[in-house]
Amino acid sequence: MSSEPSIFFSDVNERQGSFLRRTFVVGGLTAIGVTALTVRLAQLQVVQAQEYTTLASLNQFNFRLIPPPRGRILDRNGVVIAGNRPSFRVLVVRDETKDLDQTLDLLGRLLPDTLDRRRTIIREVNAAPRFSPVPVKSDLTWEEFAKVNIYAPELPGVMADMNEARYYPHTGAFAHVIGYVAKVSDRDIKAIRDRGEQPPQIMFNPGFRIGRTGVEKALDAQLRGEAGGKRVEVDARGRVVAEDVGGSRPAVPGAEVILTLDADIQNRALEVFGEEAGSCVVMDVRTGDILAMVSSPSFDPNLFVSGVPTRTYRALADYERRPLTDKAIDGTFAPGSTFKPAVGLAALRRGVSPDRRITCTGGYYLGRRFACLGRHGSLDMRNALKASCNVYFMTLGVEMGPDAIAASARDLGLGQIFDIGIDGQKRGLVPDTKWRRDNPVRGDGKWYPGETPSYSIGQGALNVNALQLAVYTSRIANGRKAVTPRLIKSIGGVEQAHAATFEDLPFDADLVKVMRDGMEAVTDVGGTGFRNSQLGLGPVRMAGKTGTAQARNYGSGSRKGSGRPWQDKDHNLFICYAPTDNPRYAISVIVQHGGLGGGTAGAPRAREVMRTTLLKDPEIRARIEHAGFEAEAPEPTPLAEDGPIDQAPAETAAPAAPTAETGPRPYQPGPQ
């Protein structure tokens, strides 16, 4: 039989001492804990009471940023060319939905087109900050807006509201110069961080837009404004239960920007291009203000505000006439015969008399034959410009060499980048012997005499853009000052810097007058631009210069545009100014692959734009009416595809391989 184990203490006092020790330890620990708890409670409720009251209030209220209205962009007469309009939209808050997929399914029944963007919507919702409303669809019709509001109680996390969306009322007329806004991308955020800056919190708001191109991009910081905020009361799950109006602050609209452009002239300039590709720039020759800067074909920038569909973007990007490229500043072309005044001024500056006569027998010979437009006989400089005689200017060019020509061209504004407030300009190229040394042909850095004849008539490696041609024409028309262009008139009511006094041209005014005499003769009877340059405005006449630039080497084939593919036709150019007796406005027009003859496609378009420009001027209009003429549009002249040319005709032989006499084969310019 087993017995229970027993514990025996040899001394009763020992058992009592052990019990007392345990009681003392437990009691002490309890007292310490109660004391610490009391001290901590006292600290929280007395010492830190205000701090935790503030934290509790912050947890109760959220501050949600509100994108500010973007600043408007106006033309010189106050016409809105980029503004804001009300837009109904539907939004989703991810953290307030029980099931995002189910919510989008139900929303898709109300707005079927959201199903096509479902993947994009999910990506944007998941990337948004917590409790941030994400636009699912903008520009809802009133019926769609009402439908969403009716079913909103059954769609947790879905709401519909009205906001301000960027709007371009003139659609494509200002698309390139004004640009457009678009959603903030990861690359935008990364670019800011790469500069060592912290992106503003508003940039993470799904409804915020930034300038992507043109003026919208260049002045984005000024146009943005300051974000506002709505202070809302939320429950424990972060859902909005009320708004604290007193704690909210309104958004501050962006600065208003006024440009030097004129909406009427800009719209007319795009209109006259029709389906043709090219560019047009209009300048005030006295102030340098740009009144129009158009690139054709254009596109509707409103498509990009909410996000252009990939299919639409690809159609624009792949079209051969490049509607997304700003041809006014980014497209460079050989100037053709519009370059001859620069060659003439270079010769006059070197002491050549404008009355010097050179006999044209139909071709210029330097190792090979460079053909002219015809057999012009004996010509002085004014008549050489009128007839656009290649032989005359080739003769002068070979005598001077490329460096003298290049210096004159740069003084007139070619090969320059101008500070007009937007980027994207191409400098183009005004070549000289130094350029050839830096850019040898097959290791040969020598400029050969055989390259100069083509250079002297605006071909070869030479290329310019429409803005440079407008500045070039303005300086010739002004005659005394090196006019520089200005596009941005004021920002937020502050007038922008403007050259009150331009630098003097490095040419004697009488020499420039010779060029103007020749350009006036171009639009007179017998001139290469006569037929399509008549304004029909009585005493107000226009002077100009035609130009044709080869798009490819034709060899011994015909250069006539009829029947040729569009991309094989020559570029068609025209520069002009008016009135001839007191120049005020200058225009450059480039019609890309417009066909043979600078007076056939460029001149009639420049004429129509010049008419609009002149009739917008009250003084000139009063002069026309005082002379007893009605300011009515003349009978339209058909835009002939082919006409009198002002470059080497088709029978010119293709350049041979480089020799010691002719040098490298001349560059055949094409669309840049």
Automatic annotation (TrEMBL):
Principal location class: membrane
Task: Give the organism the record lists.
Answer: Brevundimonas staleyi
Record's compositionally biased regions (Polar residues): 547-556
Keyword ATP-binding annotated: no
Identification of the protein by name: Penicillin-binding protein 2
Q: Which residues form the Penicillin-binding protein dimerisation domain?
A: 66-243
Q: Which residues form a coiled coil?
A: none
An example of a GO molecular function for this protein is: serine-type D-Ala-D-Ala carboxypeptidase activity
Show the ranges annotated as biased composition (Low complexity).
Answer: 648-662
